[in-house]
Amino acid sequence: MPIHATAVIDSKAEISESADIGPYVIIDGPVRVGPRVRIYAGAYLSGWTEIGEDCEIHPHAVIGHLPQDFHFEGHRSYCRIGAGTIIREHSTIHRGTQPESVTSLGKQCFLLANAHVGHNCEIGDNVKLYNNTLIAGHAIINDNVIVSAAAMVHQFCRIGENAFVSAAARIKQDLPPYLIGAFESTCVSYNAIGLRRSGLFSPDEISEVRRVFRALYRTRQSFTNAAEALRANVSQRTGRRILEFIATPSRLGIIRGRMGAHAGETEFESAASIGDASIED
User: Fold this and answer.
1) DSSP three-state, residue 43
2) Superfamily covering domain 201-269
3) What count of Cα atoms within 13 Å lies in the side-chain half-sphere of residue 273?
4) 229 to 113, 143, 221: CA distances (angstroms)
5) How many CB atoms lie within 10 A of CB 30?
6) Eight-class DSSP state of 272
7) Distance CA 92, CA 111 (A)
8) In sequence order, what are the beta bridge partners of 8?
């Protein structure tokens, strides 16, 4: 187990023999570090934090530190990082606020430099948070989501699987699966390129996402009426999943379309405006 002589390791920590701990790393408290984890210079891990196997933690990342929450009273809470996750420089992940609560990241996630994951967040598998993304407390981000650089996600927001958040977007309401959020919490299209690239969906399933998106966001019906009409007509798992997501009780409501309405009065102008995502009618 290569541990640099300048690393400071708490006696309560449990470090795998195959882990690699770099210079000036601080591990403070009963942290568990799994097999083949590499922790680079200057990283700080604390509290009841668990790091799964094959993770990489890059210089000056802070994992499991106290939540940025005025309600925190110092109780035991947790931070759990899934296997194969990469956490780049200066990223921060805070543990839960309430007693015994958890902040969790799934497997194979990738946090680029300066990403922040707040207390009590639930991040799924294979989620990518690009540079300077800010995920506020209690947010839920499902599997295979991409959050582009400098985007912000409001506390208690939900983002469904395989969704795409544009660079510098501010997401303040729930974004359903397979859709694209951009600008000031606006749903602009469905994630056609991402769905095709994933290899997880058939052409029929992707076509149904397109049809459901258009019914919800590109017609003159109210959102509620459009969703009700779709229930009898969806035939693919993707359509059923979108309807299930929007039917789930939400603290913040479902993200709106262009011009502040669910019925899309205007078309979105250009795919180039939101980076490597697809805008298709």
Assistant:
1) coil
2) Udp N-acetylglucosamine O-acyltransferase, C-terminal domain (1.20.1180.10)
3) 11
4) 44, 28, 10
5) 16
6) G
7) 9
8) 26
Q: Does the global pTM surpass 0.70?
A: yes
Q: Which residue has the tokens 């110092």?
A: 74
10-residue mean pLDDT series, the chain (281 residues): 94 98 99 99 99 99 98 98 99 99 99 99 99 99 99 99 99 99 97 98 98 94 91 96 97 85 37 40 44
What type of residue is 274?
I
The position carrying tokens 């399933």 is 205
**Virtual CA dihedral for 32, 36, 40, 44, nearest 10 degrees?**
-10
Contact 119, 94 (CB under 8 A): yes
Which two three-digit tokens encode residue 206? 């992707």
Give the Å distances, CA to CA, from 23 to 5, 42, 61, 111, 180: 7, 7, 13, 22, 41
Q: Does domain 8-194 have CATH number 2.40.440.10?
A: no
